[in-house]
Automatic annotation (TrEMBL):
Signal sequence interval, chain numbering: none
Example of a GO MF term: adenyl-nucleotide exchange factor activity
Transmembrane segment boundaries: none
GO cellular component: endoplasmic reticulum
Protein name: Fes1 domain-containing protein
SUPFAM superfamilies membership: ARM repeat
InterPro entries: ARM-like, ARM-type_fold, Hsp70_NEF-Inhibitors
Length: 229
């Protein structure tokens, strides 16, 4: 038996070898191979958590750097990596436990909007379909901050990213929905749409307008269903 791989290539090689031995008859996996695969997956999770931690440290150092512009590309790359990592729900949960919450706070409090889209997407990954994470984010004030940034933002990409975070933060969570209504979330979205739906702006904001309308529709449907229940 080969050693447990600490990278994707090693695991891929195992899967290819296992696939080449595929039989139409279901057979139990050899216990030694099952143990090896389990250890491989656990090892990869540890390695990915370490990689996420490295990215978090890099970003926090960079956004505090006196040469902010000089490290902007490096920061954006690290953010993209974190967004990719946190597409996995298990890694998204780990992210919050290794400094991710502090990172989000720092990103939301930046005086520039250069990373607004990525911050919104990262928030979206962390809280989507995760009620406990949604509650933590609400209590940290991320909904209010996101709405405030959205009201001031005019870049379509940044607006879509922020909306993704807001949508994932609010949907499928009664606690978040109640907070959204209390903070006049619907009214804020309509204020934004008054600008983005102007005849001379519709092409520029077409995608954002579609996403916002869909979010409002889905949220209203959820609220209606809750009342019926």
């Amino acid at each position: 038996m080969c050693t447990v791989p600490n990278n994707l290539k090693g695991l891929l090689r195992f899967c290819m070898e296992a696939g080449s031995e595929f039989s139409s008859e279901m057979e139990p996996m050899d216990p030694q191979r099952a143990k090896w695969l389990r250890e491989a997956l656990e090892s990869m999770t540890v390695d990915l958590a370490s990689e996420m931690r490295k990215r978090i440290v890099t970003i926090i150092q960079n956004i505090s750097s006196s040469d902010f512009d000089g490290v902007m590309e490096d920061t954006a790359s690290a953010l993209d990596d974190l967004i990719d990592f946190t597409e996995d729900m298990n890694l998204a949960d780990i992210f919050l436990k290794i400094g991710g919450l502090e990172l989000l706070k720092a990103l939301f409090n930046l005086p520039t909007n250069v990373f607004s889209a990525q911050t919104g997407m990262l928030l979206s990954n962390i809280v989507q379909n995760h009620e406990e994470a949604q509650k933590v984010a609400i209590n940290e004030g991320f909904l209010e901050i996101s709405m405030q940034l959205l009201l001031k933002e005019r870049d379509p990409t940044n607006m879509s990213g922020l909306l993704s975070g807001i949508s994932s933060l609010v949907r499928s969570c009664a606690f978040s929905q109640k907070h959204f209504i209390q903070k006049k979330g619907f009214e804020s979205l309509f204020v934004v749409l008054e600008t983005t739906c102007q005849p001379n702006e519709q092409n520029k904001y077409e995608r954002f307008n579609e996403k916002t309308s869909f979010f409002i529709f889905c949220l209203c449907q959820e609220l209606f269903d809750e009342q019926l229940g």
